[in-house]
From TrEMBL:
It comes from Zobellella endophytica. Gene3D superfamilies: Hexapeptide repeat proteins. PANTHER family: DYNACTIN SUBUNIT P25, PROTEIN YRDA. It holds the Pfam family Hexapep. This is Gamma carbonic anhydrase family protein.
Length: 178
């Protein structure tokens, strides 16, 4: 088995400069933007719907990414969409949700079906974003269930693309060693 696996004849598609650590496993209809990275033990299944991961986004160790199938209640099901310059912390679980651009999802977070995370958001470690919850752009969210804590500072907003850039540099170092 390789990291990239077909499902129903569809194999993940990678942009330029993408890094997939060999222990990560990706199935089916998944597309990664340029300079994205997927780290050890990530499991991503684009089997019953699709996953899109934006440019320069990083999916860290032990994260699970999945989608929702089509049903009578949801004729189109729900995909998983992750924007550009997103950092998904270790052991997060994202299921059929939408994450905007320049977002930090803390370690161990769970984001559930139909949740929508705006741009420029930080979600604290261990937080739970319930199904259908909308997180407004420009804020820090914490807790289980998640609650808006406060607006982000300018320094925090500046850190979000910096975090993504740090992982672009790191994945480039890994790519040079292979």
């Amino acid at each position: 088995m390789t990291s990239l696996n077909s499902y129903n004849g569809i194999t993940p598609k990678l942009g330029k400069g993408v890094f997939i650590e060999p222990s990560a496993v990706l199935y089916g209809d998944i597309e990664l933007g340029d300079d994205a990275s997927v780290w050890p033990l990530v499991a991503a299944r684009g089997d019953v719907n699709y996953i899109r991961i934006g440019a320069r986004s990083n999916i860290q160790d032990g994260t699970v990414l999945h989608v929702t199938r089509k049903s009578k209640a949801r004729p189109d099901g729900l995909p998983l969409i992750i924007g550009d310059d997103v950092t998904i912390g270790h052991k997060a679980m994202l299921h059929a949700c939408t994450v905007g651009n320049r977002v930090l999802v803390g370690m161990g977070c769970i984001i559930l079906d139909g949740a929508v995370v705006g741009d420029d958001v930080i979600i604290g470690a261990g937080s739970l974003v319930p199904p259908g919850k909308r997180l407004e752009s420009g804020h820090l969210y914490v807790g289980s269930p998640v609650k808006q804590a406060r607006p982000l500072t300018e320094a925090e907003k500046a850190f979000l693309p910096e975090s993504a850039d740090n992982y672009v540099r790191l994945k480039n170092e890994y790519l040079q060693q292979t």
